[in-house]
Amino acid sequence: MTTIDTARLAGMFAAIADAMSADRDRLCALDGVIGDADHGIAMELGFSASRDAVAALDTGSADPTTLLNTAAKSFLNAVGASSGPLYATAFMRGAAAVKGKTTLDDTDAVALFQAMAKGIQDRGKAEPGEKTMIDAWAPAAQAAGEALASGKGLAGSLEAAAQAAKAGAEATKAMIATKGRASRLGERSLGHMDPGAASAVTVIEAMRVALTG
Ligand code: ADP
Ligand code: MG
Ligand code: MG
């Protein structure tokens, strides 16, 4: 059983920010093909801002909900692109899912993860198959829930999530975009991975390592 405290969550944001910086150019290139080439910059800016904002909190007294709401607000302020409100909503919903907890156990952490995916879906109104980040987040959330229910701990659940996200992002190559900027391309979006699904894989993998490694 893992116990995740506020300091561990702050470390998670630092790890995601590092991962986004490392992945920035690939994500911009993917977005350059079917969008406006700013996705890597948006994600790096957003997670750097969240990292800095949560690092400034007193992790001794701030609870996970305060930390996640702080991350949400700073992400939203830093990012002008569509991914801004989507990830901000993810963290706000995650914050609500762990309200009242001072530390998170495996069940809490999976609930947080699933609330993030649901938040993105509620905010963007995308369904699976529309070639968005939801094609990575939705199967990842489902896989995490199934793994936990089958007796796997957090590490196994987030491993299942990371694998499902990867498969989901890969599958976006065969999809025609019907949401977001890429939908303007119609069939010309075929054959290319959705940048938001690609970055979701990186986010989820960084979360997995930071929370269970
Ligand atoms: P923008 O298109 O405003 O430049 P970004 O480049 O940061 O924003 O993000 C693009 C990604 O956002 C897409 O690849 C897609 O995954 C995701 N996206 C766009 N619209 C939606 C939506 N309605 N629901 C979920 N994800 C979306
Ligand atoms: Mg873009
Ligand atoms: Mg843009």
CATH topology title: Serine Threonine Protein Phosphatase 5, Tetratricopeptide repeat
- The proportion of strand residues reads under 5%
Return the average pLDDT rounded to an integer.
97
User: Could you state the oligomeric state of the chains shown?
Assistant: single chain
Bound molecules: adenosine-5'-diphosphate, magnesium ion
- Gap between N and C termini: 13 Å
- Low-pLDDT windows of residues: none
- The figure for the number of domains is 1
- So what's the overall shape? globular
SS class: mainly alpha
Report the helical percentage: 55-70%
Q: Quick one: CATH superfamily?
A: DhaL domain
The gyration radius over C-alpha positions equals 16 Å
In short:
With 213 residues, the chain is mainly α.
What does this structure look like?
- This protein is mainly alpha-helical.
- The chain contains 8 helices and no strands.
- α2 packs antiparallel against α3 (64-78).
- It has a single domain (6-212), classed as Alpha Horseshoe (Serine Threonine Protein Phosphatase 5, Tetratricopeptide repeat).
- The mean pLDDT is 97.
- 69% of the residues lie in helices and 0% in strands.
- The structure holds adenosine-5'-diphosphate and magnesium ion (2 copies).
- Adenosine-5'-diphosphate (ADP) is lined by residues 31, 35-36, 38-39, 42, 81-83, 86, 120, 124-126, 132-134, 179-181, 194-197.
